[in-house]
## 1
Amino acid sequence: MAQTAVDPQGGRSGTRRILPVLASIARFVVIVALTLLGLLAVTFFIGRVIPVDPVLAIVGDRAPEHVIERTREELGLNRPIYEQFVIYVGKVLQGDFGTSVLTANPVMTDIRRVFPATLELATLGTLIGSLIGIPLGVFAAVRRGGLLDQIVRIIGLVGYSVPIFWLGLMALVVFYARLGWVAGPGRIDIVYEYTLSPVTGILLLDTAMQGQWDAFWNALSHLILPASLLGYFSLAYISRMTRSFMLNELSQEYVVAARAKGLSEARIIWRHALRNALVPLVTVIALSYAGLLEGSVLTETVFAWPGLGLYITNSLQNADMNAVLGGTVVIGAVFIGLNLLSDLLYGLLDPRTRRS
């Protein structure tokens, strides 16, 4: 019988190709682990530095001394700080952020209940900012120094300068109180609130899937104003960065070569320049989305939107540190996840960034 020859060089070359991939995966895992550990450390020590005694928040400041000491022991707050941190990390890795003093529910249960509202609001705000901001940025770059370019720059300046809570209050006064074009604070009218069976927690999806179109339009009416406000701030950032990226691309040599070949200006702008500008723009959109997820506290407070931001605000006002730290960790983890996702998409869109 003929024997198959084995090429030892082929085996070694295959190993050389696999090792960089494994090393890259290992680096990715280590970076994620260290970042999350750093996030947990920061939130833990902030919770210990804040001059709020979680024991008194639970039992009250008039509780007997022996009750206070027993509660402190049950919570492990009488142990050394490093030991408390190890216990804290172990519980967080199991999804246990403790019990909320305000609601008496596990913090993770509360977060699962309120996070879909924040996700719905931030997602629609990012869509508004992206769908309007990217074309505005492109046209501003193409017509640099023109009227549209000046308008886009003013939009960006106002978006960075005006406090979001003031714009929210003014929007409520004008569009809700005076004109009556949209529904007011809250997520849905109480008439529909108890007729829905939550599936995803995202009201637009739940009402559409259940065919409750009156509730759908009511939820949309409540969502339009806060989502538009967040969308405006996202638009200001995205349009400014799109303009900057497009100006850089339009000055490249391949654009000059494309024009010399007789390609239409529209094709050069939308199929070539914008396509290359989308690579860094993915990171910008991801950061904007993460910023809306973590920074919608004031918007949710102004519009009484029952999301994670309002939950953290109410918990902080009631010295419910378990809920505050749990919400902070979740937001931080989402931010880290979106950053990592944008890095992966960056590599997929631009092969030059991939390592061989």
Note: DSSP finds 15 helices and no strands in the chain.
## 2
Amino acid sequence: MTLYQRFVANEQLRRLVVLMGMIGVIFAVRSMMNIILLTFIFTFLVTQLVRHVQRYVRIPPAAVVVPLYILVILLVYLGVTIYVPQIAKQTIKLGESVYNFYQSPSFDANKFMQLISQYMKQFNLTDQLKHGVSTLVNYITGIGTMGVTIVLSFILSFFYTIELDKLPQFGGLFLKSTYGWLFQDIAYFAKKFVNTFGVVIEAQIFIAVVNTVLTTITLTVMKMPNIPSLAIMIFLLSMVPVAGVILSCIPLCIIAFSVGGVQYVIYILVMITVIHALEAYVLNPRFMSSKTQLPIFFTFVVLFVAERFLGTWGLIVGLPIFTFFLDVLGVKTIKTK
């Protein structure tokens, strides 16, 4: 038996080498990580929906995928044409209110504001303003780039899911090829990762529902306008752990100021702080740990370390990656439903 044949026959060593190779490839294409992860998430969610529908009705994937994507495009169009202009108007109104207050006689009579004004004169506001404008331009550019990434991921996931029944047949050709052992090992690791990701995303959806319900109840009590559209926005942002709750604070504060002034803005900030603490210290550790069967302490540590190394993406994929390695190393097997 040759060295190559002994290597192929040694499944444990072979899979370790394949796993290291996969990690190396992912590191090499890390600049494309946004589009890879977004495509994976979109594809996973749509695939789960298609499989769920096919349990009850025997229909081709296209019958579910095409209407779903048309609905998503329609909702995005309505959001851009209706919701975004409202936010822009609220922002302009907020800016005008601040400017009018600054120019009004009441500003000169307000000793507290005068004290703040004198304190701010100690700083070089010109340089600070230039730096702020530069940061804003970079931020807007980043939003544009991320928008293109989302669109490309959306298109790629559409073409994958619309041929959901054909792709496994094509992938089976690789498993029977000359180097079938390589693709079998890749499929083995891919299946395990998809399994762990599915467990975690289920928990995150539940957390998003809890956040949305609590926030919507608070907004209803405050008599905020457009509750349904705000609820949809909050749910979508809550799918991003920790950061999503903070991001929702910006449009909510703008709308709150137009409704009830500074007092309502304070209410929103208090609500966001409470919900953010609830998610970070109760919901994330409790439900993530119950789904992944990890101790709450390890859940905290994984979220913290993953955020440090991977940024916001670490909060989303940190636990799936950790549980994936636990499964691969044989420490704790994640059971498939």
Note: The CA atoms of residues 214 and 275 lie 8 Å apart.
## 3
Amino acid sequence: MDIPHPYLMFVGDVQDQLAAKTAQGIVDWRPEWCLGQLRLEGCKADLGIPDLTIAEAASRGAKTMVVGVVNAGGVLPEHWTSAIVQALEAGMEVASGLHARLESVPAIREAAAAHGRRLFNVRHSDQRFATGKGTRRPGLRLLTVGTDCSVGKKYTALALEREMRARGLDADFRATGQTGVFISGRGVAIDAVVADFISGAVEWIAPAAAPGHWDLIEGQGSLYHPSFAGVSLGLLHGAQPDAFVVCHEPTRTTMRGVQHPLPSIQEVIDLTIQCGRLTNPGIRPVGIAINTKAYGEDEARACLEAAEKAHNLPATDPIRFGVGKIVDRLMEDFPA
């Protein structure tokens, strides 16, 4: 998709920061594309960029309003329609990462047609996928997996790409979610793919490559999450990863949106190896990425040291401390 920028980031009236993670991801990794944010009354998220009205954004050259939110079911709340229509009337395109298609709302569809504007549904792909085959293919692949949703799988993969490229390694981030597609300009939102074709779609995202090339595949959900484990498992089989990094948020006791307890890091390591061996018998963990945002400096370092000692793997917070030690382990385990 060729989605024109700069963007006006629309976060509606979401009730926490995590619900704006699509918008936040774009701001964090493509800040030069983001002019400002549009928040409705009652919004509890803040992207840390200027608050703009639609008119102000249009006058400053915004080309697309991005609906940068996530919610259960990926629905488009009815009371957001007027803001989307206003953006179209002001001359902007509109892009959304929700499951609901923008044109499914008559007022939005009609406004886009009347003003000659485009609607981008980033979560939906026109690409047709085969079923996964699980046949070994050349190239190297790393998958980020999680103890839960929204624990840093995308950020870890992007941080690994940046660090590995800085060291001269041949590495590419492979997006499997709407935010990643916005950031990279390519990929497939795996959770919108028909179940039978999930693993095949991942094989398409990360195809056969040169022997030394790394595809860094963005993980989704968790093998332990009762809502999303099906997506996570299909992604694992299609990714056929040689290596994986476990992503974790240490302050949670239950998984997001459900009452099930958060699995331990070791449980995720064990289940990932058990399931991943189906398509890559050599799968192995190479690191742990822990979101220590809730901790002070000393507490964060103590948490990481404890994880390293418990699992004999490098542990870091990719945003706070970088991913250098995980790349060191990767190069040690997979020498050129």
Note: Residues 140-333 form a domain with the Rossmann fold fold (CATH 3.40.50.300).
